[in-house]
Amino acid sequence: MTLPITKKHTAIEPEQPVRNRPLNDVLEVYISRRNVLLGGLGTAAAAFFPSALLLARDDSNSGGGVDPEAPLGTSILGFESVPTTLADQVTVPEGYSVQVLIPWGTPITGSFPAFDDTNAANNTSAKQAQQSGQQHDGMYFFPFPVGSNSSDNGLLCVNHENITNYLHTNPQAFDASGNRTSAEEVRKELAAHGISVVQLTRDGSGQWQVVDTGFNRRITLDTPMTLSGPAAGSGFMVTAFSNDGRATRGTVNNCAHGFTPWNTYLTCEENFAGYFLDSTESDRLPRNKSRYGIGPAFFGYEWHTLAGEPSETNNQFRRFDTTPAVGATAFDDFRNEANGYGWVVEIDPFDPSSTPIKRTALGRFAHEGCWPSRFIAGQQLAFYMGDDSSGEYVYKFVTADAFDPANLDRDMLDNGTLYVARYNDDGTGEWLPLVFGRGPLVAPAFRSQAGVLVNTRSAADLLGATPMDRPEWTAVNPANGEFYLTLTNNSGRGIAGDRQANQPLDAANPRMYDSGRDDDPDSDGNVNGHIIRGREDGDNPAATTFTWDIFLFGARADAPGVVNLSGLTEDNQFSSPDGLWFDPREDRGIIWIQTDDSAISDITNNQLLAAVPGRVGDGGPATATSGQQTFIGAPLGTDLRRFLVGPAECEITGIDQTPDGRTLFVNVQHPGEDGDAANPTSTFPGGVGTLPRSATLAITKDDGGVIGT
């Protein structure tokens, strides 16, 4: 039995309610195509009060920069598209160079134990706890020291989403009944998850180096965590580990991220459900488990089977079996353990002794990211979030108080309102409040705000939110505050049969395609994904209404028009957009798109593309037909270009840059994911004879210029 690899396109799908919107209700929807931004610069009317203490870097979501009403024109991108490729290497445009940083196993703390990239057996759990973890994902660069705007020194926070078959020499240790037999292996797996905080400095030659002045640390599945917000201290959080319901251990499946104006990192727990078992009959599971996919089917790590092993400390293995113990209460077992996961976790990288905080006011679901609105004095802050599963929802959290750069409140994320989005066919949308006592969120359906938040998905169901095609990363345009969201794919969208009741076509998710391949049902539906964007009414992040359109549809260049709605060519074809990030300097005006795809993996490895964003409503119509339904598509133009292609079988994810825009950090996740230590299918980054390793890339321009322009 080999270690299972978690692929996002095969994530556990939770139990979902039937959504009964018939297809013939959707007749004609208008989705504006986007044109290109001229690059004419201006000054926004919004007030902005910069402060060295406000952010660790002056590239924030402030007002100012490109005029959101500027005329449209030609692209400002300053590189030629690189070709698609299946090569086991990183490909970037001519004139750019790539340095590999902190690959899995890089020693960053303590005794700095060396990593053996030829034999996984030589890398122990104790070493892994002092080394960077696996599966690099979302990340953020905090200039160091705090309050500076340094582009030569910083703390890089990196998520480690999951683990791969290369963590051990295969096969792993299982007995005939499928139980784990090696506590050492399991501890290594727990330590490979989580977050790395790594100090980087750029030397005189322009190369980046790992240093440690006391800030480097690993946060893993064993790290103590504090619970805060409305669900903290409630009966939902009580376990044998925390009888007062205010603490838990570890963070898991950390995918995308966010940040705050008080210089803390937000890491997001995505597919947490697959780590937990509950062997209770499915029809008896509570909704805080069944609605999230917790039950007898899970990722198969079988960590709980080592419960009672002599070296186990404080039930570190037992906690992953959440089946209620016979004759016990929540104070005695771990029936509520999974309620401590699926949250946004706040980490202070500048205080290595601080305890990470799980902010329950932001809801419990498969958090893909948590990206903030612009930081404008006198306005409330919004944080935009996707729930990464087919047919799930888009959320935002709005702080109760307005942002005051002179009086930063570190507990703003405990006080505010969580909303879920409804996308209407006419291009308008509504934010529906997830507040106990309002609308249908009353007894007997719910009995407290804690119940609403622990059961966020169920509450959103009752409000009639719009099911989306796997909502993933969110991003905010620093020029005008518009929010963007990747909808990675959905093979169930618009397909007749049982799935149709849950995921009918609608204006925000208008595309399905019948490939005619009965042998591969996952080749139908919206297999290529799209990117949607919205503008809050009044450009106010606290607004409860917005307008929206579709920015881009992924597709093969040679796909029929019903699929290739954005008119992609060989120079910019892509599929399954996942990561999404804006260059934070408004005057550069670039949005970066990363992919996690299998639909066009026969012609290219995953990639990073750059585009000029435009604005909501900037385009005209193009018609496509799907079955009996007519939709308006979004043909693109030429302002989308492929900047990077990664090595074999990787995902391209995690992106940030230095304040001066001259180093772009990009993560390569799970190269060679279909192989194992005995039969590797990639040798990135070490070369022949080495294990493939997730890693961070530092990309620079050979002439020392700004990336992309």
Question: How is this structure best described in words?
Answer:
Helices cover 5% and strands 26% of the residues. It is built from 6 helices and 33 strands. The strands form 7 sheets. Strands 14-15-17-18-19-24-23-22-21 form a 9-stranded antiparallel sheet, with no helix packed on it. The protein has a 6-stranded mixed sheet with strand order 9-8-13-12-11-10, with no helix packed on it. 60% of the residues are buried. The protein is mainly beta and 709 residues long.
Strand order of the largest sheet: 14-15-17-18-19-24-23-22-21
Q: Look at the structure and give the mean pLDDT.
A: 87
Give Rg in angstroms: 24 Å
**What is the terminal-to-terminal distance?**
49 Å
Query: How is the biggest beta sheet arranged?
Result: 9 strands, antiparallel
Count of DSSP strands? 33
Unreliable spans: 1-56, 60-74, 627-635
Based on helices, strands and strand pairing, what is the structural class?
mainly beta
Count of DSSP H/I helices: 6
> What would you call the shape?
globular
How much of the sequence is in beta strands?
A: 25-35%
Helix content bin: under 10%
